[in-house]
Design goal:
mainly alpha, 9 helices
Length: 184
């Protein structure tokens, strides 16, 4: 791997020691995926932005005691985000607009769904860990950080076609992995 690869374990350890730079790096790496998770749960841009902010505030407070199980911080952040989104929706329900929210909350707190999603995320992360260095970096840049093909190609020093073709194969592999875990 190259030196500029994000090593979540090292960043988490530095952030746990109080390094704002390390936490800022984690924030930059995961703010987009966390936003899209939040938006998928609350279906409102403003609320999603608030949930993201609350997620990273909780992360900053809890990171000193965090024991990172995998190579990525994203599954833990996704869990924190889901909890913050549930809190936001409950708060909105208490303060009005209950008809719409009553229909959405049960889906959010469906434990079986959360277990299946956690298993799927774990399987995908394991599959990503099994990728070669270049493929893992392509996946991180394009899927997690939202880089376009050309920007990822320039960052990695490879051609646009290489990024496009490899990402297509990676996505197919990840879809197959997700389908395997979701099928009884």
């Amino acid at each position: 791997m190259t030196d500029d690869v994000i090593d979540d374990r090292a960043l988490v350890a530095r952030a746990a020691g109080g390094s704002e730079d390390a936490f800022r790096s984690l924030y930059r790496a995961y703010v987009r995926p966390v936003y899209w998770i939040a938006f998928g749960l609350v279906h409102d841009e403003s609320d999603a932005e608030d949930v993201v902010q609350e997620t990273f505030v909780v992360a900053w407070r809890k990171i000193p005691k965090l024991r990172l199980e995998g190579a990525s911080l994203l599954p833990w952040l996704a869990t924190v985000c889901r909890l913050q989104a549930q809190n936001r929706l409950r708060s909105k329900r208490r303060h009005g607009n209950t008809a719409e929210l009553d229909e959405r909350i049960p889906a959010l707190v469906d434990v079986e769904n959360q277990v299946v999603e956690a298993e799927t995320v774990a399987a995908i992360l394991a599959a990503v860990d099994g990728l070669g260095d270049l493929d893992r970096e392509i996946f991180r840049l394009c899927a997690a950080e939202g880089y376009g093909y050309q920007a990822a190609a320039e960052t990695l020093g490879v051609s646009h076609g290489t990024v496009r073709n490899r990402l297509s194969r990676i996505r197919s592999r990840m879809r197959a992995t997700a389908m395997e875990t979701e099928t009884p």
